[in-house]
Amino acid sequence: MAGTPGTLKRRSRRGTDYWVREHVRVDGRKDDEHLGTVASVASARIKELRAEIELGRALASGSSLLRVLGYQRLERKTAAVLAALFNRRLFEAGLVLVGSHAYAALLNECGVMAPGYSTRDIDVARSQPLAIALPPGLDFGRLLNESGLEFTAVPGMPSHRPSASFKLPGAEALAVDLLVPGKSAGEVVPVNELGAHAQTVPLLDFLVKEPLDAIVLSPNQVVPVRVPSPERFALHKLYSSQSRKADRDKVRKDLGQAAVLLTVIEEEMPGRIGNALRSLPASGRPAVARGARAAAKLIGESHPEVLALLQRLGR
User: Fold this and answer.
1) Considering the domain boundaries, does residue 15 fall inside one?
2) Domain count across the chain
3) Is the CB of residue 22 less than 8 Å from the CB of residue 30?
4) SS3 257
5) At what angle are helices 248-268 and 99-110 packed, to 10 degrees?
6) Is residue 278 very low, low, confident or very high in pLDDT (cuts 50, 70, 90)?
7) Of 99, 112, 114, 227, whose CB count within 10 A is highest?
8) Is residue 124 over pLDDT 90?
9) Which DSSP string corresponds to 237-250?
């Protein structure tokens, strides 16, 4: 359901009774979703809708409780976008949530209480063409608008270059980037099955191989997604940190996220880091080693076990 779960109401107008769902949209506006006349909507459907609303309320309540307990939770608009992708079965078809929102989901999946993160970017990736056929006239940009938000394509740079990013208009910072593997970063290539273009990211195929089922929490929804395995995510963060020389804040964020996940994996799932490292392409190993050494400097002596692990990875 879009927006809050809301309430079913029976109304009458000009002698005709009809059903609506009163709810608050993802943009904060109150709205009535017209469901049809009482005569046209079967009682079984009304019963089903009531059950869906009750389930939505229960999930929202559970999400709020988990937030109090320290779990990571997304903003409403971000979750609405992911729900639109889920409803069109894109995650089932092979799409993977990456970036900091995937990190939040991994923290929750691993049961880790860690400091929050700040991002409005939604990064989604695929390594192979998705096993999906969108309905005629529906492309990735229009699909994003099924979230209840109005996205626009970000003009390419230079202007003749196709857009690989979508954002909300005006001062809204929420953006959606579509990513695919490539030897160099930032090339724009077509993603035909979505009627869109994507930016290339080196070693992305390593990152999204063997993804995990997970959920993301929000005030309105609990959304099933797919995310990278924590060990591949951590190693790729070490790698990507070495390509962000001009952005120190992002470098620190990459290194910090990698260190947290590596610590958890080493404690709870020993051996998985080594297995993932063996499958890392040789071209990425020097950057991962440099990233590990940089993370070790950032951690210092405060976490000796993490430091020892990073020192091993940095050799």
Assistant:
1) yes
2) 3
3) yes
4) helix
5) 30
6) very high
7) 227
8) yes
9) HHHHHTT-TT-HHH
Residues 108 and 159 in one domain: yes
Token pair, residue 234, equals 């951590």
| Of 228, 252, 275, the domain-final residue | 228
- The reply to whether 288 and 154 lie within a common domain is no
* 3-state SS class at 303: coil
Give me the pLDDT at residue 58, please: 79
Is 266 contained in some domain? yes
What pLDDT is recorded for position 27?
77
pLDDT of residue 7: 84
pTM, rounded to two decimals: 0.84
Quick count: other Cβ atoms within 10 Å of Cβ 138? Answer: 15
Q: Which residues pair with 153 in a beta bridge?
A: 166
Examine the domain organization and report whether 174 and 221 are in the same domain: yes
φ, ψ (nearest 5 deg) of residue 193: -70, -15
Non-local (6+) Cβ contacts of 92 within 8 A are: none
Mean pLDDT to the nearest integer, 113-131 = 86
Tell me the pLDDT band of 250, cut-offs 50, 70 and 90.
confident
Map tokens 């051996």 to a residue. 271
Residues 18 and 146 in one domain: no
Q: Are residues 190 and 44 in the same domain?
A: no
What is the domain range of residue 88?
Answer: 71-228
Q: Is the peptide bond before 286 cis (omega within 30 degrees of 0)?
A: no
Please give the Cα distance from 15 to 1 (Å, whole number): 29
Q: What is the largest CA-CA distance in the chain?
A: 79
Which has the closest alpha carbon to 162: 144, 186, 143, 130?
186
Residues 306 and 238 both lie in one domain: yes
The band of 116, judged by pLDDT with boundaries at 50, 70 and 90, is low
